[in-house]
Amino acid sequence: MTQLFCSPENSEPFWRRIGFLNFPGIPYQSTINMYKTLVDTLNASKEESTKSVIKLWNCEPYQARGVEPKWIWNLSFLEDGETLTKPIIFPVYRDWQIELTLPDRNNILDKIKYSGVDSAAYGSFMIIRKINV
């Protein structure tokens, strides 16, 4: 994954043409932040289609009540039942709400930073390769 701070601001169309995306609205950032993943990742979906799902809201838990999640990832695993077939790499704010639903396990609903999901905190990114909660 590559991250850049778009400067000067009028260079944004160039970065878009070569595949960079804007970060979702992350609080307390006034610069234009863009990113591009360099590996094949699991894309977010509009709706749930599997029993194992990660949902993400772009707000804190107290603001997410009664609001649909902004992003949904339908999970599929390798034979070990923990490693995702494709990793999830996505820009986030650590205080956003995440929900993890897995059959026959306790659901997790909390801020990303407290979720216990095996994610790497690389700056402003959530990177999930394995679910072992």
Main sheet: strands, sense, barrel: 4 strands, antiparallel
Roughly how many Å apart are the termini? 25 Å
Give me the number of helical elements. 2
| Domain module tally | 2
- The total count of strands amounts to 10
> Largest beta sheet: what is the strand line-up?
5-4-7-8
Can you give the mean pLDDT? 85
The residue ranges in which pLDDT falls below 50 over 5 or more consecutive positions are: none
| Helix/strand order, N-terminal first | EHEEEHEEEEEE
Oligomer classification:
single chain
Residues in β-strands, percent = 25-35%
* Structural category: mainly beta
Determine Rg (CA atoms, Å). Answer: 15 Å
Helix content: under 10%
Question: What is the overall shape?
Answer: globular
Helices, strands, pairings?
Layout: E1 2-5, H1 12-17, E2 21-22, E3 33-36, E4 53-56, H2 61-64, E5 71-74, E6 83-91, E7 97-101, E8 108-111, E9 119-122, E10 125-130
Antiparallel strand pairs: 1-3, 2-3, 4-5, 4-7, 6-10, 7-8, 9-10
Structure explained in plain terms:
This protein has 133 residues and is mainly beta. It folds into 2 domains: 2-36, no CATH class; 53-130, no CATH class. The protein is built from 2 helices and 10 strands. It has helices at residues 12-17, 61-64, and strands at 2-5, 21-22, 33-36, 53-56, 71-74, 83-91, 97-101, 108-111, 119-122, 125-130. The strands form 3 sheets. A 4-stranded antiparallel beta sheet has the order 5-4-7-8, with no helix packed on it. Strand 9 (119-122) and strand 10 (125-130) form a beta hairpin. The chain starts with a strand and ends with a strand. The mean pLDDT is 85.
